[in-house]
């Protein structure tokens, strides 16, 4: 791997590189116990102000090439009325020169799925629906503070399929309070029987300022790393056997249905962030909008955006993140190609970390790429922390 030390400079944002758009819709009917994303209750005035703010913020962005992907996250974007969906979608298409991107994802909660909303999403050009089921079992949904029922998940899925979107994803969560391996297997079996094109399976994490964090601090729920590791491996084996290829630690897809927006993000391409709390990586900067609807509206009205956590996109920063996120993907990384895209002295330190990972059997070299082994994927967060520490100190 000594060839990493003398890279050729290649731009990461040329005319052919992917460009994404992440639009944060902050409205949610309730706050789940595990959720740390910014959200607020929807009101007629709030939604109207949000739409006006998005339209204004778009005028502050320089878009030099067409959007490859669009992702509406939240919050619950599917909570918007059909009329508001069409208005927001029209703004996005106008921002993109009148065209819809090749991939357009929208997150929906089961209780928000209606035929009218789905028809509106189809009309504007949405290709991919991501539904947050989390579980099919009432007691586990209750433990997460989710308001939908198993029956609502089933009805919502049938409606989404009937609307004929190109790709459908279901989100599931494991290592939930009170969930044993049999319960998790039952949830996966139910999901597989539904037959979505894509499955995202997330291990429950305890984020600060959430209800679950408080329960953890009070000893009402406990962490069990060994149990989590077992569920990770069970997940990978079960979904692989069912025909879902793992392309990232938490993401599985049938052929042709990977989430391109996420892949472009993990590969450190550019994306534009719009809306309160949205983050972006565009035109030399990574930054976020404030996580407050009124503050975001006021800043946009003054001609300001992306004022929070603003950092320059240096080769060092991009090199580090490309390696950390790249190792989380099943395909792994080509360190030589990354060093050419993001030339940095830190690659010397990165080379040492990668060699250590291989020696410790946490990673392997295959056809010039470095990818994590099964044990390495179980320790992906620790691997990322080691990469960050080494490259930050270089």
UniProtKB/TrEMBL annotation:
Q: Where in the cell is it found?
A: Cytoplasm
GO BP terms: porphyrin-containing compound biosynthetic process
Q: Name one GO cellular component term.
A: cytoplasm
Question: Do the record's keywords include DNA repair?
Answer: no
Q: Which UniProt keywords apply?
A: 4Fe-4S, Chaperone, Cytoplasm, Heme, Iron, Iron-sulfur, Metal-binding, S-adenosyl-L-methionine
Q: Pfam families recorded for this chain? A: HemN_C, Radical_SAM
Where does this protein have coiled-coil stretches?
none
What SMART domains does the entry give? Elp3
Give the InterPro entries listed for this entry.
Answer: Coproporphyrinogen-III_oxidase, Elp3/MiaA/NifB-like_rSAM, HemN_C, HemW-like, rSAM, rSAM_sf
For the keyword Cell inner membrane, the answer is no
GO MF, one term, reads: 4 iron, 4 sulfur cluster binding
Q: What is its main location?
A: cytoplasm
Residues forming the Radical SAM core domain are: 13-245
Q: What functional role does this protein have?
A: Probably acts as a heme chaperone, transferring heme to an unknown acceptor. Binds one molecule of heme per monomer, possibly covalently. Binds 1 [4Fe-4S] cluster. The cluster is coordinated with 3 cysteines and an exchangeable S-adenosyl-L-methionine.
Stated family: Belongs to the anaerobic coproporphyrinogen-III oxidase family. HemW subfamily.
What name has this protein been given in UniProt? Answer: Heme chaperone HemW
Q: The organism's lineage?
A: Bacteria, Pseudomonadati, Verrucomicrobiota, Opitutia, Opitutales
